[in-house]
Write a structure and sequence with these properties.
- The structure is a homodimer.
- Chain A is α+β, with helices and mostly antiparallel strands.
- Chain A has one domain: Arc Repressor Mutant, subunit A.
- In chain A, α1 packs across α3, α1 runs antiparallel to α4 and α2 packs across α3.
- The structure holds a DNA duplex (30 and 30 nucleotides).
Chain lengths: ~110, ~110
DNA sequence: GTGTGATACATCGTAGCACGAAGTATATCA
DNA sequence: TGATATACTTCGTGCTACGATGTATCACAC
C-alpha cells in the first residue's frame, strides 16, 4: 500500500491494536501485518509520538530475560479512535467523489 | 480533516476532479471543497507532480484577459484512479480492524 | 561452542509532502 | 479608489515513514 495512504491510518491502527489488550512493539507489528505493514523504526516513532500526546502509557516488564515495553491505551487514546469515525464519514464521501461516473455534471 | 489522512487521497482526488472534463486550478479547488479542502500552494504542487508523472497534460488558454491552465487526464492518470480501487479494499479491511470490538480475541 | 534466526528495542539521516505566507496580475463592483 | 474574486507562482518550514545500523538475549541445530 502507498505510503501516503497509510499515514493517516497508522496512528489510529496502533491505538486500535492495543485497545483491547496491552501490547508491545514486536507484537503490534505482527498483529497489524495482515492489514498494514510497518517497519520497526516507524512503529517506535509512532509509539513515542502517541505517548507524548498522552494517548498511551508505558511500563517495562522483564520477560524471559528480555525487556518488554507494554503499552496501555488512555482515555485520550480511546477518544482518538472514536473521533476517527467522523473522519471515516468524510473518507466515504471522498471515495464517492473519486469513483463517481459522469452522469449528471454541471 | 487531519492532514495525514488527506495525503493519500489528494492525488487521486485531483485526478478524479478532471476525469470527466478538463479543468483548471481555481475550479479544481472549488469542486473539491465540499469533500476535501486544500490550499492553492498545495494544489499547484500536486498538479506539477502529476504532470511530471505523466498523469495529466497542460495547455494554457487565455480567458477574459487572464491566463488559465487547463489540465487534461492521461491514460496513466485514469489507471491511477483504477488502481485506487485496490487500495480501497485494503482501506476497508483496515477500517474493520480499527473499529472491531473485542469479542473473540486470540 | 558456534552460528543462525527470532525476539525486542533504539537512533540517525533522508526524502516526500502539505501548508502558510507572500507575491503578481486582471476584472468587477461599490 | 479600494475591496473582492479570479488565477497562478515561489519559498521556507515542519511533520513523518523509512532504511540502515546497532545492541542484546534466547532457542535450536550442527
Amino acid at each position: 500500500m502507498d505510503i501516503q495512504l497509510k499515514r493517516g491510518l497508522l496512528d489510529v491502527c496502533v491505538l486500535a491494536s492495543i485497545k483491547n489488550e496491552d501490547s508491545y512493539g514486536y507484537k503490534i507489528i505482527k498483529d497489524m501485518k495482515p492489514y498494514l505493514e510497518l517497519s520497526e523504526s516507524t512503529l517506535y516513532t509512532i509509539l513515542k509520538r502517541l505517548e507524548a500526546a498522552n494517548m498511551l502509557t508505558v511500563r517495562s516488564i522483564e520477560h524471559e530475560g528480555r525487556l518488554r515495553k507494554y503499552y496501555h491505551i488512555t482515555d485520550e487514546g480511546l477518544n482518538r479512535i472514536r473521533e476517527f469515525k467522523y473522519d471515516w464519514e468524510e473518507i466515504l464521501a471522498i471515495h464517492q467523489f473519486i469513483t463517481r461516473e459522469d452522469s449528471e455534471n454541471e
